[in-house]
Design goal:
Elements (H helix, E strand, L loop, with lengths): L3 H9 L24 H9 L13 H11 L4 E5 L2 E4 H17 L7 E5 L4 H13 L2 E5 L1 H7 L1
Parallel strand pairs: 3-4
Antiparallel strand pairs: 1-2
Length: 146
Amino acid sequence: MRDIAADYLDDIRPVFPAMPKLAGVAPRNPLLSALSDFDQERFLEFGWGPETAPRFPTIISAMNHFMAAQPNAIAAEYQGEKISYGALNIAANRLANTLVQHGVKRGDAVCLYLHRSIPMIVGIVAALRVGAAYIPQHVALLQKRR
């Protein structure tokens, strides 16, 4: 599976290459000219530390690991409602199967018209499990269309 974040960072690194400091002065980069020397230096130093391999290649593989390793542990909690990894696994599988039955496949986008909630987490996991991207939508948009 392609690492989208790594691809993105590879695309932007050439825009902000590591530039040597000259006597404590931040290097001038025309794309950052609106920033002070101090802020340019902070921007160029932020987030470019040593590269480390992630523990899991994808978010869904991490979720699958924890669902199998600790099914009784709480996976999410929102406004007093809780769901365990085991229950999340069952619910996400059920929804993922429904998505596949409706033609959703790897690379598709699934719009989620939900408020922040446990069902939204189930939708996110189900979409990722199918290999689709999830796109959270504001519920008011759905109501305006009706």
